[in-house]
Write a structure and sequence with these properties.
The protein is α/β, with parallel strands linked by helices. The protein is 38% helix and 15% strand.
């Protein structure tokens, strides 16, 4: 069975460098806020073209801290895509903010900016643009629409957990919003060997606020000056691993894009990949839109290809949240897509034989209708 992802292969390919970096970090005796963390923050900031990278414990913490840093509090509203896996919704619930669910555009399945603006209210403090499946969502166009609506005060936060290295022209995901968040979960394009995350910004004031919030709200130590501070930090081992993997990120993203192109070439009529063009995607997930998902999934399984669904339930339909405050529009595109999406294997160390076998299975998919 060809698996959805094989992070162990990435480790094996980079093991000598990773193990040397981890051993060096352990020998320093400084296992938090040491040179590995500082070095990774510098390297990643240079790579993204931003002023500040603030490593934290995980991507969900990063979203919560980013929302708090731009002033989102209990009762405020945050616009987000309805299909974004629940992570922004969870951050909102932790704060007591109210998620407002907007529709998505095809084929990228990212936030529909016009629908987001149509959902504006006086309580909206932020819009989260999730770069889903590795596809860049629209940030600059959204900013123009917000300004035209007289709401330039609304913060734009990029959720880059699936888009490490994606770019529009000479600007990368993470450098477009007021604040941006990353997850370094092991299956990500830039993944650690455990949890990790970061908040990214060009703004000194927001960077200062995140620094306070990630370390109890202290300034100086043991003196709380920022409410709702917490303990959220990455350890030196994970930072050392990320620093090594960052050197290989562009090459691995290129390998993912080649896999996507091979799949595109193999698809029969009626099937479509949810993918942006060129370097606006980094192929975090290869997601297929199927005329009939059940028959396609059954066929692929019989052909030895593992599949998954990212994500099977829209955020506003999650049972735990149905009775909690929220707003949303019709979500026609998101509701249609959630019944048709199917995830294929896509990771940078797939073999040529594996790619060929997936393509063979795709070519023989039952025809639409």
């Amino acid at each position: 069975m060809i698996q959805i992802n094989e992070p162990a292969r990435e480790y094996a390919a980079l093991a000598p460098s990773i193990e040397a970096a981890v051993l060096a970090s352990l020998r320093t005796g400084r296992w938090l806020f040491g040179e590995a963390t500082e070095g990774f923050a510098r390297d990643f900031a240079e790579y993204l073209g931003v002023n500040h990278v603030l490593p934290v414990a995980n991507g969900t913490d990063a979203l919560e801290l980013a929302l708090r840093a731009v002033g989102v509090g209990a009762g405020d509203e945050v616009i987000t895509a309805a299909n974004a896996g629940g992570y922004t919704s969870i951050a909102c619930r932790l704060i007591g903010a109210i998620p407002v669910y907007a529709d998505v555009v095809s084929p990228t399945m990212t936030l529909d900016s016009q629908d987001a603006v149509a959902l504006l209210s006086s309580r909206v403090k932020a819009v989260v643009v999730t770069h889903l499946y590795g596809n860049l969502g629209e940030v600059e166009g959204l900013r123009v629409l917000l300004e035209a609506a007289g709401r330039a005060d609304i913060a734009i936060i990029e959720d880059c957990a699936q888009a490490h290295g994606a770019r529009a022209g000479d600007r990368r995901a993470g450098s477009l919003g007021d604040l941006s968040t990353f997850s370094f979960y092991p299956s990500k394009n830039l993944g650690a060997l455990g949890d990790g995350g970061a908040v990214v910004t060009n703004r000194d004031d927001l960077a200062h606020q995140v620094r306070l919030l990630r370390q109890y709200g202290w300034e100086p130590r043991y003196r709380n000056v920022a409410a709702y501070g917490r303990n959220s930090r990455i350890d030196e081992v994970q930072a050392a691993v990320l620093r090594i993997k960052l050197e290989h990120l562009d090459a691995m993203n290129g390998a993912r894009r080649k896999i996507l192109q091979a799949y595109r070439n193999a698809l029969p009529e009626g099937f479509r990949l949810c993918v942006a063009e060129g370097e606006a995607t980094v192929g975090h997930l290869a997601v297929l839109l199927c005329p009939s998902r059940d028959s396609a999934r059954s066929h692929l399984n019989e052909m030895g290809v593992q599949t998954d669904i990212h994500y099977p339930t829209l955020d506003p339909d999650q049972p735990a949240w149905c009775d909690l405050p929220m707003r949303c529009g019709p979500l026609s595109n998101a509701r249609l897509a959630v019944e048709r999406i199917l995830t294929l294997p896509c990771f940078p160390h797939m073999t040529e034989d594996e790619i060929a076998k997936v393509c063979e299975a795709l070519r023989s998919l039952p025809p639409a209708g």
